[in-house]
Design brief:
Layout: E1 10-12, E2 18-20, E3 24-25, H1 33-45, E4 49-51, H2 59-67, E5 77-82, H3 89-103, E6 110-113, H4 121-133, E7 140-143, H5 147-156, E8 163-167, H6 175-183, E9 187-191, H7 203-212, H8 216-226, E10 230-231, H9 238-244, H10 254-261
Parallel strand pairs: 3-4, 4-5, 5-6, 6-7, 7-8, 8-9, 9-10
Antiparallel strand pairs: 1-2
Helix pairs in contact: 1-2, 2-3, 3-4, 7-8
Length: about 280
Amino acid sequence: MKTITDIRGTFQLHNGVGMPYFGLGVYLADNEQEVVDAIHWALETGYRHIDTASIYKNEEGVGRAIQTSTIPREDVFVVSKVWNADQGFESTLKAFEDSLNRLQLDYLDLYLVHWPVQGKYIDTWKALEQLYKEKKIRAIGVSNFMIHHLEDLMQHTEIIPMVNQMEFHPHLVQQDLIDFCNQHHIQYEAWSPMMQGKIFDLKILDQFAEKYKKTVAQIVLRWNLQKGVVTIPKSVKKERIQSNADLFDFELSQEDIDRIDALDQNKRTGPDPDNFNF
């Protein structure tokens, strides 16, 4: 059982790096003042994990926010991802350098393969392994990889991914994938934990909100953490950023975790990793 303490707590990756289990996603935040403000509010609230990607087109803004924050760079866990069009060995090395330049950072804490592009993700991963050995990245991982993608990757490469970032919410639990990742010490991470806002339509969650005197969002995010899943809810609103972080003064019972698990419908709000065309 992983220990959850406070907003700055970490889960340990299999290479010993501590990854803050709660962070801010900046997908759809614009590259100007919006993303800078969101990150400043998050860091002031106690967040220490910021998740971006080259395809989000806001790495410059993320870098500006980190440079102009009062929090030292080494205290912030910064994540980016290589986009599909840049996959392949040499092109991934270049994409990584481009991301670092946009972020104006010397290193990344975590770099992910954004999607399992067929015929390319193994070469892409080998580039990440090289960057990791060169100490330009503290940890490397993947995103949207199903069990068969992970098995294929592990057969052809040296380093097992440290993280797998997946769509994860009450309608898409994928417990078999979580179990596989746990078995191989791959840290599971959630994207879209709020089902793109659709969690507020799940009436049973209102009962839990009432029982624990918390919001539906806080119930779902706490469920993420108690499942041992890193979570990075995205918001650009100060009140929401603060409210999302108010998770550390209550605990869901195992029975209630099981009841949320039981809402699983294997239903995605985003693309299917086995059938995407971008």
